[in-house]
Amino acid sequence: MPEPTLGNPQNTIAVLQKYNFSFQKKFGQNFLIDTHVLDKIIRAAEITKEDMVLEIGPGIGTMTQYLANAAGKVIAVEIDKMLIPILEDTLSGFENVRVINEDVLKVDIEKLVREENGGRPIKVVANLPYYITTPIIMGLFENHVPMKSITVMVQKEVADRMQVGPGTKDYGALSLAVQYYARPYIVANVPPNCFMPRPKVGSAVIRLERYEEPPVRVEDEKQMFQIIRASFNQRRKTLVNGLSNAAELDFTKECIQSAVEALGRGASVRGEALSLEEFARLSNLLSEMK
User: Fold this and answer.
1) Cα–Cα distance between 269 and 97 in angstroms, integer?
2) Closest to 93 measured CA to CA, from 66, 70, 73, 65
3) Quick check: helix, strand or coil at residue 195?
4) What is the pLDDT of residue 186?
5) Is 2 within a domain?
């Protein structure tokens, strides 16, 4: 297996010049040019030869080379067709990599895992474009893709949002969703100068370790997430008003009031004060009242 050659600025520039590549704003492309950060990501993802890795957005193949050396198999999904000939070149020596030129949100990942890994859980690693972080991560969780963990580079504030608890300003629907499915921890903060081109904001690598069983018991997962979204949609409103106004919820205001009271919370409580456990209880209480 060849050694990774990318990950330092000179080699990255050389590849981009060779192919006359121009960065696409619409794809939010920022390529990593720091080998220490790459090593850290591979370590944090705990990749072994037993693993199949799904890489989202391989770019020119910088991290893909590292992943290929560590993993049994790498499936890399890249949306930008201009990068495909570059990837064929930079990954030519690595026999255990398959590149798919597709929008990852349109790929049937569960089918891919069945075909490529016999349905065994995979590990997901990605340096995600910031505008699409949430839909990708939530899509992987909500579609119950068999996976052990997701290790991703995201905008620093998104990483913060994924791991905070009730009562903080960053706490919201994303925090609760991530913490329902996985145990989050921030592996490293990554300054803008580790990328080309430089993003305007700081980044962080966060690892989300998938729970075998969610940490709370909830009768109706979908309903709980509707309640969570509705309670953060109008942050200034009390929880009772937020839920009463939500079109997708089918409960009377009286019903919502008595459920919030049964939680032991006053009528003026806001959604951002509730823990995941309380949202699960609230959802279960409302289900019983139906």
Assistant:
1) 51
2) 65
3) strand
4) 95
5) no
Give one DSSP letter per residue of 208-249, joined into a string. EEEPSS-SS--S-HHHHHHHHHHHHHTTTS-HHHHHHT-TT-
Q: How far apart are CA 196 and CA 119, in angstroms?
A: 36
pTM confidence score: 0.89
Ranges of the chain with pLDDT below 70: 23-28
CATH of the domain at 256: 1.10.8.100
Is residue 46 located within the same domain as residue 89? yes
Tally of CB atoms within 10 A around 105 = 13
Provide the token pair at 259. Answer: 């459920």
Q: If you search the block for the tokens 């340096």, which residue do you land on? A: 127
Helices (H), the chain: 9-18, 35-44, 62-70, 84-90, 109-117, 133-142, 156-163, 173-181, 221-233, 239-244, 253-262, 276-289
pLDDT at residue 27 in the model: 65
> What's the helix, strand, coil split of the chain in %, to 5?
45, 20, 35
Residues 145 and 255 in one domain: no
Burial class (CB in 10 A: 0-12, 13-18, 19+), 234: middle
Are 179 and 125 within 8 A, CB to CB? no
Q: Are 149 and 124 in contact (CB under 8 A)?
A: yes
Packing angle between helix 173-181 and helix 133-142, nearest 10 degrees? Answer: 40
Domain shared by 16 and 123, yes or no = yes
Q: pLDDT for 71-92, tens place per residue?
A: 999 999 999 899 999 999 999 9
Residue 267's pLDDT is what?
Answer: 83
